[in-house]
Design brief:
Layout lengths: L8 H16 L7 H4 L4 H17 L17 H13 L7 H15 L2 H13 L4 E4 L15 E5 L2 E12 L6 E7 L10 E7 L5 E6 L8 E12 L3 E2 L5 H9 L5 H25 L4 H26 L5 H24 L6 H11 L9 H12 L9
Parallel strand pairs: 1-4
Antiparallel strand pairs: 2-3, 3-7, 4-5, 5-8, 6-7
C-alpha cells in the first residue's frame, strides 16, 4: 500500500472543485477565531455556513455515502480546511460534531440513532455540545462524578459539566456520566444523548479573559435520557469517549491551525515594519518552526492513509502548533503596534487556552513519552 498524497489526481480534482465553489460563494469573510466570540451575528453566520456546506455537498466529506456523506478520505478533509481557511470562511458549528459524534454513531450507534441524529448534524439544523469535562475532572475524564441512575427505560442525570462549548445554543448533548456507582474505574461510565431543551438543565455562561462567553457550566437535576439514547453497552462509555477524543486532535484541524498561525505571523511582520522593529532573527525562527508544522501535517496524512496509528504523531503536532501559537501571539503583543493593539490583545488572551483544549500539553507529553519514546509509565507515589 502506498500513501495518498495531495498531488494525487483525485485530490487535485477535489481542490479545484472546492476552490471554484468558494470563489463563487458569497463568503462572509469571518475567521474561525472571530466566530468564537459568540455574538448573535456571528452565531447566525456560523449556522448559515453549516447550511451552505450541506447544500453544496461539503458536509460529512468522509462519511460513507449511505449516511449522507461523500466517502472521501483524510486528504480531502485536510484540503477542505486549507482552502476554506485561505478563503476566509468561518468554521461553523457542525463539522466538529460530524467528525466526533457523527463518526462515533456511524461506528457504534444503532440504526435508530443514526436515522434520528445524523441528518441534523449534516445540515446544521441540530446543534450539539459535548458534556465531558467537570469541575474536578478535566484531563482525567474517568474521574467524572455526574451520575446517570437507571430507572427502567430511562436514566436520571444529576451533576455538573464545565467548559461546555456552545451549550447555550445546543439542542442536544452527548454526555459521559457514571452509570454504576460501585463499578471499577473505566467500566462504570455510560455515553448518553441528552435533549438540552428539557426541564432540569441549567446553562450558565463562563466569562473568558477575552470578554467572550463561548463555553458554559451546565447543571443537571433529574434530567432524563432514554435507554435507547445510550451509545454502546451500558457502563462501557469510557472506551467510546477515548475512541472519539482521539479525533479531536485530528490532522485536518492542524491544517487550519497552521494557516491561522501563518496569518498571525504575517501580521506580526507587518507590525514590525510599522514600528521599525529590527528583530529579524525572531521572525526567521518563528517562520522556520511554522513550516515544520506543514511538513508534520504531511507526515500525519501519510500515516493515516497507510492505515498506521497516527495518534502519537498527532499529539506531537498538537503540542507543536499550540505552543507556537502562543509564542507568535506573545511576539506580536511585544511589538506594541498601536494600530493593531486590540487585535494582539485578543489573540494573546485567546492563545492562553490553546495548550489546554483538545488535550493539555501535559497530556500530549505523556502520550509522546510513552508511545513514541517508549518510556515507562510513571507510577503514583
Amino acid at each position: 500500500m502506498s500513501a495518498v498524497t495531495f498531488d494525487d489526481p483525485a485530490a487535485t480534482s477535489f481542490r479545484r472543485e472546492l476552490r471554484d465553489w468558494l470563489t463563487g460563494t458569497a463568503l462572509p469573510g469571518l475567521r474561525a477565531l472571530e466566530l468564537s466570540h459568540g455574538s448573535d451575528a456571528n452565531v447566525q453566520l456560523g449556522r448559515r455556513w453549516d447550511s451552505l456546506l450541506s447544500e453544496a455537498g461539503y458536509a460529512g466529506l468522509s462519511w460513507p455515502p449511505e449516511y449522507g456523506g461523500r466517502g472521501l478520505g483524510v486528504v480531502e478533509e485536510v484540503i477542505f480546511y486549507e482552502e476554506c481557511t485561505r478563503a476566509g470562511a468561518p468554521d461553523g458549528f457542525s463539522r466538529f460534531t460530524q467528525h466526533m459524534l457523527g463518526n462515533l454513531l456511524i461506528e457504534f450507534g444503532t440504526r435508530v440513532q443514526q436515522e434520528k441524529y445524523l441528518p441534523g448534524m449534516l445540515d446544521g439544523s441540530q446543534l450539539w455540545c459535548q458534556g465531558s469535562s467537570e469541575p474536578n475532572a478535566g484531563s482525567d475524564l474517568a474521574a467524572v462524578v455526574t451520575t446517570a441512575d437507571r430507572h427502567g427505560d430511562e436514566y436520571l442525570i444529576n451533576g455538573r459539566k464545565t467548559w461546555t462549548s456552545w451549550a447555550h445554543l445546543a439542542d442536544a448533548c452527548w454526555l459521559l456520566a457514571k452509570s454504576d456507582r460501585t463499578g471499577r474505574r473505566h467500566h462504570n461510565l455510560s455515553l448518553l444523548l441528552v435533549d438540552m431543551h428539557q426541564p432540569g438543565i441549567v446553562v450558565t455562561p463562563i466569562r473568558q479573559i477575552t470578554g467572550a462567553s463561548g463555553f458554559n457550566e451546565v447543571a443537571f437535576t433529574d434530567a432524563r435520557a432514554g435507554v435507547q439514547d445510550r451509545v454502546g453497552a451500558e457502563h462501557e462509555g469510557w472506551s467510546l469517549i477515548r475512541w472519539t477524543l482521539s479525533r479531536e486532535r485530528g490532522v485536518y484541524q492542524s491544517m487550519r491551525r497552521y494557516l491561522e498561525v501563518s496569518h498571525y505571523l504575517r501580521q506580526a511582520e507587518a507590525c514590525q515594519r510599522e514600528v521599525a522593529d529590527r528583530r529579524a532573527e525572531v521572525t526567521e525562527r518563528l517562520q522556520s518552526r511554522l513550516e515544520l508544522i506543514w511538513w508534520h501535517v504531511v507526515r500525519c496524512v501519510e500515516e493515516v492513509t497507510l492505515g498506521l496509528d497516527s495518534r502519537a504523531a498527532e499529539s506531537i503536532l498538537k503540542l507543536y502548533w499550540s505552543e507556537l501559537w502562543q509564542e507568535v501571539a506573545h511576539f506580536g503583543l511585544s511589538l506594541r503596534c498601536e494600530q493593531h493593539r486590540d487585535f494582539w490583545r485578543d489573540v494573546y488572551l485567546y492563545s492562553r487556552s490553546v495548550t489546554i483544549w483538545a488535550g493539555t500539553s501535559e497530556i500530549q507529553r505523556n502520550i509522546i513519552s510513552e508511545r513514541v519514546l517508549g518510556m515507562p509509565r510513571a507510577e503514583a507515589g
